[in-house]
Design goal:
heterodimer, A: 7-stranded mixed sheet, 4-stranded antiparallel sheet, 54% strand, B: mainly beta, 7-stranded mixed sheet, 0% helix
């Protein structure tokens, strides 16, 4: 079942912070975050693993609450380059099979 | 390194025609994936191959077949194209489960 992302869209001024949430109805082994710019392929940002290990981006952080089956992506002091659509992908321990959310469109204005 | 390559970049088909989308990766990854992306729907997994010689269905496999030709190549075939298969198709690869996936540039397919 597809995870649910919120908000669907957000507009920020440069330097502002944003939080994107991802919620699943199923138990999760890992949560992946990707960013996609218009007309381009998705690019990996971060993986959060069950048990707390986190691998990924140096300027963007995230949390993973296994009990609540939720993850949040934190973008602080946003830059123009952060604009794009953010997808979470959830994996329930099925050999890397990711189910992606519908995406959150982030626009950062000067 | 080219990463993940996909051919063709664009394709227009008529209803009922068949075609094969090609994907290749040069990163020695074990796992490969095919996704489709439609507006407002995110990325939906069509088929994946956890390792050479294995394939498995994803969320939306109907109307598609795949072949993991070798470790590098993973093709997606539409046997009888339908307008509902109009979409952007992405191939991706990764070392294994719980590792990042690298996406190809995509194929924009229109079925009329």
């Amino acid at each position: 079942q597809q995870p649910v992302q919120s908000p669907q869209a957000v507009i920020l001024r440069e330097g502002e912070d944003a939080v994107i949430n991802c919620s699943s109805s199923k138990a999760l082994y890992s949560v992946h975050w990707y960013r996609q710019k218009h007309g381009e392929a998705p690019v990996f940002l971060m993986i959060l693993l069950k048990g707390g290990e986190q691998k990924g981006h140096e300027k963007i952080s995230a949390s993973f609450n296994e009990k609540k089956q939720q993850s949040s992506l934190y973008l602080t002091a946003s830059q123009l380059s952060y604009s794009g659509t953010y997808f979470c992908g959830t994996e329930g321990g099925q050999g890397g099979k990711l189910i992606f959310g519908q995406g959150t469109e982030l626009s950062v204005k000067p | 390194n080219a990463g993940v390559t996909q051919t063709p970049k664009f394709q227009v088909l008529k209803t009922g025609q068949s075609m094969t989308l090609q994907c290749a990766q040069d990163m020695n990854h074990n796992s490969m994936y095919w996704y489709r992306q439609d507006p407002g729907m995110g990325l939906r997994l069509i088929y994946y191959s956890a390792s050479e010689g294995t394939t498995d269905k994803g969320e939306v496999p109907n109307g598609y077949n795949v072949s993991r030709l070798n470790k590098r190549e993973f093709s997606l075939r539409l046997e009888s194209a339908a307008p509902s298969q109009t979409s952007v198709y992405f191939c991706a690869s990764g070392h294994q489960a719980a590792y990042e996936q690298y996406f190809g540039p995509g194929t924009r397919l229109t079925v009329t």
